[in-house]
């Protein structure tokens, strides 16, 4: 059977295990020899015990677990050609020519670069006597299928990334808890949520928790936001509301590109309204815990689709990313999605907010 390997790379997210499980089982079902690569690109490069054959039962009882049971890492060495050469040798040694990568845009870009260099890497391995000519011919093509595992939902091309829904469950539970104590003491709470340069978690959190104000990276508030914020909080209190909730995305910025931190917001509220104000930073709690039903199903569907994409690939099939479009798992050109994702960050750097929102909205 064909050699196929699965690995998780970059920050973990809930639902990655469901995806790993689906890849292994669909791979075995279709007659592949399936491998785990542990610890992301680092494991691919180090080889040895990090690349092990998977069995049907080795992915039993992982679907409900948060994180990734095969480990994940950020690997600097893979950014160098010398690192990728070592990785290629390890794959050829085991007959692996199909890779499923579960990670963010950086990890997917790395995989695509690896694929485009593959033939020159094999050439060098033959030249330096590390693999034979026969191996070079037999394993001439590397195929890549990606899936986005991230709580941030920051990838263009997919409606939801694996982990986002679970993170929202965690956040909502925490905010509901905060609201009850805020009510008792008539307090204002500022909650910082994750998302890196993406405001998705913050927006959905704000909508579903009846927050009074939200700060996101893609759409900085007007320059007089301190006045607008205070007016809004006062207005809510004047209608009998006993508490205020403000959501701050960790990447929130103002119109000059300067961070709007929870601390900055607190200073504004305390100085102008003298409200009893507290900050809660949710942090990595958002990335942990059991995956939701949605993320388990999403991981399963994407994992199965990724394997099918690889099995149908021909030597000139482009690397793909498996995405969710409506309720459909689809395959999209990986690099096109990566470029679109990068364009959002670029628009934000250029303070072109209108474009940033537009591009993000196209998911
Ligand atoms: O990308 C996922 C994420 O949790 C972001 O929301 C956050 O900015 C970042 O990773 C935190 O990274 P680390 O786990 O390295 O602290």
Descriptive report:
- The structure is a single chain.
- By secondary structure, the protein is of the alpha/beta class.
- Helix content is 46%, strand content 18%.
- It has helices at residues 16-29, 40-46, 81-94, 105-127, 133-138, 164-185, 200-208, 225-238, 262-273, 293-312, 334-349, 353-361; strands at residues 3-8, 33-37, 51-53, 96-103, 143-150, 162-163, 188-193, 213-215, 244-249, 277-281, 320-325, 328-333.
- Strand 1 (3-8), helix 1 and strand 2 (33-37) form a beta-alpha-beta unit.
- Helix 1 (16-29) runs parallel beside helix 10 and helix 3 crosses helix 4.
- The chain starts with a strand and ends with a helix.
- The model has no long low-confidence stretch (mean pLDDT 97).
- 6-O-phosphono-beta-D-fructofuranose is lined by residues 11, 150-152, 194-196, 250, 287.
Topology:
Blueprint (H helix, E strand, L loop, with lengths): L2 E6 L7 H14 L3 E5 L2 H7 L4 E3 L27 H14 L1 E8 L1 H23 L5 H6 L4 E8 L11 E2 H22 L2 E6 L6 H9 L4 E3 L9 H14 L5 E6 L12 H12 L3 E5 L11 H20 L7 E6 L2 E6 H16 L3 H9 L2
Helix pairs in contact: 1-10, 2-3, 3-4, 4-11, 6-7, 8-9, 11-12
Bound molecules: 6-O-phosphono-beta-D-fructofuranose.
The site of 6-O-phosphono-beta-D-fructofuranose (F6P) has 9 residues, from loops.
Subunit structure: Homotetramer.
Family: Belongs to the phosphofructokinase type A (PFKA) family. ATP-dependent PFK group I subfamily. Eukaryotic two domain clade "E" sub-subfamily.
Organism: Cryptotermes secundus
């Amino acid at each position: 059977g064909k050699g196929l390997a699965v690995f998780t790379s970059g920050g973990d997210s809930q639902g990655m295990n469901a995806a790993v499980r689906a890849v292994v089982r669909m791979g075995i079902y279709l007659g592949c020899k399936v491998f785990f690569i542990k610890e992301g690109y680092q494991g691919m490069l180090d080889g040895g015990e990090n690349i092990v054959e998977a069995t049907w039962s080795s992915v039993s009882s992982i679907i409900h677990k948060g994180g990734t049971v095969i480990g994940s890492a950020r690997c600097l060495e893979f950014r160098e050609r010398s690192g990728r050469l070592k990785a290629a040798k390890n794959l050829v040694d085991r007959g692996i020519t199909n890779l499923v990568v579960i990670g963010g845009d950086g990890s997917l870009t790395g995989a695509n670069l690896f694929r485009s260099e593959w033939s020159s890497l094999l050439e060098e391995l033959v030249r330096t006597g590390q693999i034979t000519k026969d191996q070079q011919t037999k394993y001439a093509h590397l195929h890549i299928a990606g899936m986005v595992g991230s709580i941030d939902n920051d990838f263009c091309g997919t409606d939801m990334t694996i982990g986002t829904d679970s993170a929202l469950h965690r956040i909502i539970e925490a905010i509901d808890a905060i609201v009850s104590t805020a009510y008792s003491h008539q307090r204002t709470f500022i909650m910082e949520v994750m998302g890196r340069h993406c405001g998705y978690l913050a927006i959905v959190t704000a909508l579903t928790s009846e927050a009074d104000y939200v700060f996101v990276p893609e759409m900085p508030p007007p320059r007089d936001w301190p006045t607008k914020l205070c007016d809004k909080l006062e207005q809510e209190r004047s209608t009998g509301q006993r508490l205020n909730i403000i959501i701050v995305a960790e990447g929130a910025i103002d119109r000059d590109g300067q961070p709007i931190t929870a601390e900055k917001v607190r200073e504004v509220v305390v100085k102008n309204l003298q409200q009893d104000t507290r900050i809660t930073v949710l942090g990595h709690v958002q990335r942990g815990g059991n995956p939701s039903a949605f993320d388990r199903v999403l991981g399963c569907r994407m994992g199965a689709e990724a394997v099918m994409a690889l099995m149908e690939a021909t030597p000139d099939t482009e690397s793909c990313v498996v995405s969710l479009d409506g309720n459909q798992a689809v395959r999209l050109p990986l690099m096109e999605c990566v470029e679109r994702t990068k364009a959002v960050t670029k628009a934000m750097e250029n303070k072109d907010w209108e474009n940033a929102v537009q591009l993000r909205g196209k998911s």
